Amino acid sequence: MTGIINLISEYSSKLNILPIIVVMNIIITILIHFLTKKKITKYLPSFAMLIAAIVIFVYALSIFTTSEGLNLSWIAVFLASAGLVGIFVSLIIDLIKSINKNSNVMVKNENTVKKQSKRKSNPNRVAKKNRKVKERNTDESKFFTKKIDTKNINNKVAAHKINKENYELKNNKVDK
User: What three-state secondary structure class fits 161?
Assistant: First the structure.
């Protein structure tokens, strides 16, 4: 634990630079958001920092064992973290903007519904559901059944097929 505290106290001057870079990137992102109407432009400073961090880090890896390589890797880490913070700030700005846009649309819709409900309703303008009229089956059953007699349980229900001749005679009598 004391080793970590000693390292922080030794490199505190380098660590003080990180919050300054991050705050500057956030301010630049917010200013670009308000000054331009394009969505992508607010991401450009953060992407530029990330690309610079990658280039510096690749160069620092080639000379990593020297003191200059270590300093360049620190700079690459600082730029990369500031770039990521800037990208997240841009995403949060886009999120807030889309939420405000959706809530404004919802408020406008609620206002129009309230205005419509205040109007006097006209019974001629009532929306009616179109229902299809079901055609009843005009064909009579080909089977004849009897009702169950509840007094006598031993009666069996029997279905008999109607002869075609008797069926036609019954239908003709009904039609007349």
Answer: strand
**Best CA proximity match to 25, nearest among 53, 2, 5:** 53
Confidence (pTM): 0.55
pLDDT tens-digit profile of 88-140?
Answer: 999 999 999 888 888 877 777 776 666 665 555 555 656 666 666 555 555 56
Say how far apart CA 92 and CA 28 lie, in whole Å: 15
- Residue 102 CA, chain-centre distance (Å), reads 12
What single-letter amino acid sits at 138? T
Rg of the chain taking only CA atoms, in angstroms: 42
C-alpha span between 109 and 155 (Å, rounded): 68
What is the rounded CA–CA span in Å between residue 98 and residue 148?
A: 70
**What is the residue-wise DSSP string for 98-142?**
HHHHHHHHHHHHHHHHHHHHHSPPPGGG------PPPPP--SPPS
Q: What is the pLDDT of residues 64-89, one digit of tens each?
A: 888 788 888 888 999 999 999 999 99
Structure tokens at 11: 């490199």
CA distance 77 to 63: 16
Note the residue count of the chain: 176
